[in-house]
Queue: 2 jobs
Job 1
Amino acid sequence: MKRLKDIAQELGVSVATVSYVYNNKWKEKRINEKLVQKIKKKIKESNYKPNPLGLQLKTGKTQTIGIILGDLTRSFNLNILSGIEKKLAENNYFALISSSNLGEKEIQHIETFLERKIEGLIISPQKSENYEKLVKIFEKSKIPVVFVDNYLSDKNIDFVVSDNKWGSFKATEYLIKKGKRKIAYIGSEKNLSALNERFDGYCECLKKYGFKIDERLIYKKIEKQEDMYEGLEDIFKKVKPDAIFVESLLYFKYGFKFFYENGIKIPDDIFLTGFDPVDLNLSEIAEVHFNLVVKGLIPFIEQRGEDIGKKAAEIILKKIKNKNKKIWKVFIKPELKNFK
Amino acid sequence: MKRLKDIAQELGVSVATVSYVYNNKWKEKRINEKLVQKIKKKIKESNYKPNPLGLQLKTGKTQTIGIILGDLTRSFNLNILSGIEKKLAENNYFALISSSNLGEKEIQHIETFLERKIEGLIISPQKSENYEKLVKIFEKSKIPVVFVDNYLSDKNIDFVVSDNKWGSFKATEYLIKKGKRKIAYIGSEKNLSALNERFDGYCECLKKYGFKIDERLIYKKIEKQEDMYEGLEDIFKKVKPDAIFVESLLYFKYGFKFFYENGIKIPDDIFLTGFDPVDLNLSEIAEVHFNLVVKGLIPFIEQRGEDIGKKAAEIILKKIKNKNKKIWKVFIKPELKNFK
DNA sequence: TTTATTTGCTCAATCGTTTAAATAAATTAT
DNA sequence: ATAATTTATTTAAACGATTGAGCAAATAAA
């Protein structure tokens, strides 16, 4: 690879001159137009690209953005990543990626990132317990940070998230319009904005249509996939719902087990909907010796991961370049799939 | 962040001295033991970490490995990535990741990687058409390269792959021992080592048990998921198999559609097995208006992605450090799941 | 003609490290 | 007492870029 120095030598000029030409600063530096052309030609011929290391050391800019997302086997996260990458690549930026599967190593990852001089950070926080610490680190580091998927309502930090409230409102409304009257809600207790707002949307919709919220239909104690079974058991023991809204259908596996064992058919006996596409690993569900009967489509709310990622990257790049103080709060409407 | 210079100033010594101490070279440099202790203490106190940019520029080492894998929504690839990351992190190395979804941008990605001064490359080639070009680039770049998933038998390039032949031999043997006599093979035509060796394993096993290979039972023209339907149709038209070995069950979706529409039950009417876990997106399969009946477990061959990734990272690191010329050719036996 | 200004380019410091070579002081050998 | 050696540390160049300041030479103004 040729260095600035090599090109300068070949043309018998100084390194500085070549640098000015390469960086389009020859006008203010009043380099002779003819020389400029000569240098430009040589630069092109030798396919010169500045050594990023020299450049980085000098400017302190690494053209690198740190990315910390949750479980990448979840396609939503992967889509976010893909969106981020595309946008960054367009702008000659790079992604340094760490998946903080359980939010446990978030802090540690960030510190390594900072050592590596990332210019910005896109993070999807997975554990609300870490929030305080995270925010402190961000404030100290002074690099732009954009949250995705979840955000902190009481802090002035940019974010790009799904319009979760809108999505669950719409889904609930859909169920109501289908004539459903006993709509159960199953979710977790994690204190994450995305999940809280899904519940809010459900409640608001019920209220709007004049239904009151029935505590017997609500189960918000899901911690691991297996709990889905218990959750349904718990609700059905108290009152038989005619529809179920699930915080995330992604891991509904054990819900189907419950349906199967109790002879509950979709959609004849119950309407099922929720966020995220159902994802069944057949080799796994087969473990429960399964007869799965599904007729027709399961409606679900699909989040636009790629758009979220793109937008987040766009914001980070803007903040790096302009250093303006505007705080972006972006909600991206998810898609309603199979709602008919 | 403190620099070497700061520490040196605070102690009234030169930068070099501190550097020698930090890098454990004070013995050969005969730095006074007491001073060494003082400096070490200060280093610890101020939590000094060398600025990677300065270090990188000086040494030319970026502590970064380029990773190019195929479709990351495929959990196998994700597992490889996860394995690589773990190993690299243990050794203070970083991963620069690019997923070359269709192998189209492989070349371009590699060139950007090289500009960024990666010290090594782990790649899972997705298109045999690119092989020649790839190999040329590698030879020119002189950085260590390790292939995963697929390899080039005629080149001397390290690789870590599943023992695909062993896996399909075992699976075929399993079917034979279950009394199956008409075992179909469904696969693609891509010229990739992993896929070729799966077919080899199938053939070898049949031969070993004294069966001859029946062309009517073999369909190797799968290009996209939908082709699975046609493939089965094609085979069943000629001769009704009692078992099917599928190159990868991951996208068997349309196979189930065929079974459903023709009233074929697993495992009563047919035995199904192959590489990779079946992955059904229920929201998608519902599109074909599905009644899926699965009784019991579907046996499948699960590749040890994480182990492959770890091993590949290990090899890369070794090659970077030792510069030895040994070529590693590692086959990792996959796991036989639900074979009973 | 002298002075001021513009033009056109080079010098040299800088970023944070590493490391060969130089140097000074202390010790040992002659 | 002088020279040679060992010990302990510093100096300075280098990696590859950027960039403010500096310096001639050419041109314009006085």
Job 2
Amino acid sequence: MLKLSKKADYALMALQYMGSVQFSDLTRARVVNTKEIAEENNIPVELLAKVLQALAKQEIIESHNGPKGGYILGHEPRDITIAKVLEAIEGPLGIADCYHENDHSPCEQLEHCNIRTPLLKVQESIYQLLSSMTIEDMMSGQPLIIVESRKTEGVNS
Amino acid sequence: MLKLSKKADYALMALQYMGSVQFSDLTRARVVNTKEIAEENNIPVELLAKVLQALAKQEIIESHNGPKGGYILGHEPRDITIAKVLEAIEGPLGIADCYHENDHSPCEQLEHCNIRTPLLKVQESIYQLLSSMTIEDMMSGQPLIIVESRKTEGVNS
DNA sequence: GTTAGTCAAGACTAAAATGGTCGGAGATCT
DNA sequence: AGATCTCCGACCATTTTAGTCTTGACTAAC
């Protein structure tokens, strides 16, 4: 239960990777492209592309077009919370559905709904939890082999 | 994101209702059947039936067959944690999929996966949160109009 | 200016999960 | 024993998700 979608996973992986590449000792502010991230993390390229698009639209990352283009983080890793990332990909948190509901899907139960209030508490706690953790936390303690310049290798074997 | 399924919602509603019926002043240990719960909470009967089945199989509730049969809670409301209920309905908690994975779906990312460890921490926190809350917490402070004996009313208008 | 590499955006397919429905098995009462 | 009321378990339809493909627009290098 409460599974994250693959897209969400991929988003976090990508951001973690970008953070590591950008903020490691040697190569600062290097732009990484979709293909590189996908290959390094064994993620289907096209799907990752869509994920990165969404992140770019939310200005979590910045896109740079053209040859030698790609993406860079839009903020410092410590300023990118997990909550923000997940929201960008999967929409707002909704343990209790009734909270963000439009006119349709009237939630016929609302009148007698005794579980709503407690669930909202749970939801609030989870949100706080996800907001307290950032991409930086995912980078820490990870050696990670830096791939310095593999922009145009013929690695498709 | 992190939405609960309708079934999970229904499970919690049903348990809350059963708890209220059983542990209110007047009528103790009354057996309630699927139809009553469904009508009282505006839940599709057949779907609720499946939910209650699952709960019964996990021994969260006890089933009693035959006329005047139905369900009663298998434990005190304070001993039924939300975590247990959700697990019964939606399977084990799996923010990070890779945690409970069989041989198939090998998670190609595992080798370089830097998000796994942090996510497990999040998951653990959430689990603790859900384990700390019980059906009793959902009953507290709820007046709730007790429906004393409506087993066989013709209420299907 | 041309070319090649990159992101952007959408339609499309396939598979899985979810929501919802059906007829049957077991138990109780008359 | 029969009728009725209940739970049980397999079944189908719809939605969501994962993944693919195609087309287009933008940018930098040559």
